[in-house]
Amino acid sequence: MADIAAMATKIIATEKTQLSALKQIPAAQRTFQNTVAALDLIQNEAQTAFLKIDFLMNVSPLPEVREATKEAVDVLNRELIELSYDEGVYRAVKEYAALGEVLQGPEKKLLETTMRAYRRMGFDLLSEVRTEVKENAKKRAELGTEFGKNINDWKDHIAVTRDELAGLPDSYIAGLCRDDKGKYLVTLEYPDFVPFMESAQNASKRQELADKNSRKGGEENLTILAELVKLRAENAKLLGYKDHADYKTEDRMAKRGQAVGEFLSGLRDGARPLVAKELLDITALKREDTGDKEAEIHYYDVAYYSRMLKEKRYDMDEQKIKEYFPLAAVKNGMFEIYQTLLGVTFTRLEGYKLWHEDVELYEVRNTDGALVSYFMLDLYPREGKYSHAAAFNLVNGHLHKTEGGEGAYVPPVACMVANFPKPIEGNPSLMSHYNVEVFLHEFGHVMHHVLTQAAYPSQSGFATAWDFVEAPSQMLENWAWEHESLKLLTKHHETGEVIPADMVEKLRKARLHMIGHDTMRQLSFAIFDFKIHTEPFGTPLKEVLRNTLIDLMGVAPSPVSLQPAGFGHMGGGYDAGYYGYLWLRVYAADMYTRFRDGKVLDPEVGKAYRQWILEKGSSMEEIDLVRGFLGREPNNKAFLESIGLGG
Ligand SMILES: [Zn+2]
Question: In the record's cofactor note, how is the cofactor described as bound (predicted)?
Fold first, then answer.
């Protein structure tokens, strides 16, 4: 595996050589092409090589390759960050900027984002302040890692008797470990925790488990998070921002913390009546169930009565639904939908030796036959493989232009990795409806990446603002809920029939079950995140979250709760960013309005979607892409409707 380590060394050496050539260009001879665009290409070359190694780490069937790539990824991460701090490169870009050339469109944006990235790293500050910024970043990274590790390492469980498991299916009970006294152990791991909270009839055991879960991360994480919040505020001040939310949103679609604040409070006010109504519904059910007319819903009751209400109202048989979704039919249907909508054809290419025999390679062509790009599907589980579903970019589409030349477009390549059971003789791999959504979603990311026409690699494919990147895929999930598209996605594994209309109607109704509660819960965490990263530090973090939850949900959390000690997103990455989950849903719902009313498979709308949303990457501001596609200002009306409000 020495060649992987050698590859990493070569990537670094190549980047260094290329950067030093770029630095040597005399100031007077600097052009956009030989400086800003060249830097983008140099960084892309290193990144593409890095992506391939990182990808192998996730998919290689050979343990020794995965091990070697892991080391190479660590080395590359460190070295490439170090190179991004190269003072000489910064000077080169500044020299070009000082020429004051008037730029438009993608070029203007590329120069701005390049300069902005330097500013955000502290490059235009005095050197001792910059050192402070760098130190701060290092401390935050360390604390963030520790915060996450404390959550991952947190293990706890409750021990219950067979009687205390009443309400849970035998298959669940059979999967539980037992202690030496024969008691069953229910851990905090999702496959144990979620079904227990939803179905265990014993309320005091539910309470015991919920209490333990609410202490995830421990007291130490509260101290770490408080320290992180302080460091983030300091970092923002050093760099000249009002607060951490302003710093984090600057290079996102939201642009400013204030926009996030307004967005969140608007949704909160909209969702309040819905949450109140849902709480009344499950309270009534609890009163009926327990015979206690005064009974109230506690934190350990919500999942339980919500599940009971769902069964009462919708009487869904997940198994029956699955019978209509054999994997092969879903894949064919999905291909047909995307090909029709986006005006492309997918052709399987055979005879290429890839990392595993299960991997399928396709080329994408326009309907006129012109080659657009390639994608791969690696859909089935195997030992040591990445265990979730995701789309990986392998080549970023871009225009390869040399000084003075016309240039040629480098076709993008992406791969979808998933872990759906492999269809074999006698087992058609029936997919849950949820997994059908996942398939549509991840393949949507693939399309976003491989249909790009952006000229510069850093603006290409799904390299968009962080709070927008999920919106195009989220929107495409709707195709799992429409009669018209479901006709293409379903084929009963025995009868060959499409899914019956009444089953689809049931699915659509159940989609809205407790959606106010789910939305408000997400909103509570987003508001907490926003508060702690904008307001001066005072109230203990634990209290801030508790008060927010009581206000928004109407149900007090556990009195022994240490939340947010277990709120992993706050450790780094999603800090002042949790709003993104809701933000993208609003844009996804709004974009979807163009496909409603019989236009789910309309190639005209699909074409506009391709041109405005998928092809442009981030060569324009995301808000302008949405405006362009909608032909109007976006709003949150469709989102509120989608959760059963307004209309
Ligand atoms: Zn996604």
Answer: Binds 1 zinc ion.
- Tell me, in angstroms, the distance from the centre of ligand 1 to residue 176's CA: 32
The alpha carbon of 307 and the centre of ligand 1 are apart by a number of angstroms equal to 26
Separation of CA 390 and ligand 1 centre (Å): 7
332-362, pLDDT tens digit by residue? 999 999 999 999 999 999 999 999 999 999 9
Domain 219-315+513-642 adopts which CATH fold?
Answer: Neurolysin; domain 3 (1.10.1370)
pLDDT digits (tens, 9 = 90+) for 560-603: 999 999 999 999 889 999 999 999 999 999 999 999 989 999 99
Cβ atoms of 397 and 411 closer than 8 Å = yes
What DSSP state is assigned to residue 159?
E
What class does CATH assign to 2-124?
Answer: mainly alpha
Closest CA to 209 of 168, 181, 180, 169: 168
Residues at Cβ < 5 Å from ligand 1 ion: 470, 473
Provide the CATH topology of domain 321-463.
Collagenase (Catalytic Domain) (3.40.390)
Amino acid, single-letter form, for residue 195: P
The Cα-based distances of 451 to 409, 445, 592, 594, 629 in angstroms read 12, 10, 19, 20, 16
Query: How many angstroms is it from 447 CA to the middle of ligand 1?
Result: 12
Active-site position among 15, 79, 442, 482: 442
H or E stretch at 391: strand 390-395
Examine the residue annotation and report whether 79 is marked as an active-site residue of this protein: no
Q: How far is CA 342 from CA 7, 601, 629, in A?
A: 37, 10, 14
Rounded to the nearest whole angstrom, what is the distance from the C-alpha of residue 592 to the centroid of ligand 1? 16
Can you tell me the distance from the alpha carbon of 27 to that of 47, in angstroms, rounded to the nearest whole number? 27
The amino acid at 280: L
